[in-house]
Amino acid sequence: MNAKNLSERLKIVASFVEKNKTLADIGSDHAYLPCYLVHTGIIKKGIAGEVVKGPFESAQKQVRSEGLEQQIDVRFGNGLEVIKESDHVQTITIAGMGGPLIASILEAGKDKLDAVETLILQPNIHAKAIREWAIKENWKITNETILEEHDKIYEIVVLQKGNMELTDQELLVGPYLMKEKSTVYHKKWSNELREWQRIMDQLDKTALSQEVQNKKEELERKIALVEESL
Question: What is the pTM of this model?
Fold first, then answer.
């Protein structure tokens, strides 16, 4: 993978970026995504944010090697703190982290979101945390997709400002994904069901405490929601 040939996962993230928007890519790693978006003419300028020194230096080196220093500003900082009001950022991408971490980054930096129009989020796991945050902070899902790459399954959630209500089932599996019921969606949740059933079998062999009972009830509820969605 490089700035001209993204992974399938990042290509799909890129496909949701609207043309001529100012982008902030948080946790940008090598800054492949913003470089690709400039090369393809989708954006004219962007910010690559990194909180880890190694990836930050890699992003700087990548942007220099691509000759894009005038278009992409690589910044060192935690989450959305790399964004300034004067940047007029309209789109934020956060890819390759867990859902709870993405939600915590958005929560910590929510004062930076006033002028932002679109959040394109790719959690590796636990996308539910993002949907819960979106409801609480008045963002709505405008698109979702699910894909498999290198034997891993990823979800992508696109948010824009607006109110949203989701059922417990939609929170867990995704309202758009549940309607589409793709092959990858079936694979993901069939795998989850097998794992949850394995845990249930282990719990059945465990001395029944209140904690074990609560865990079993939670799993039973999730199993029922997922089975109904397939």
Answer: 0.94
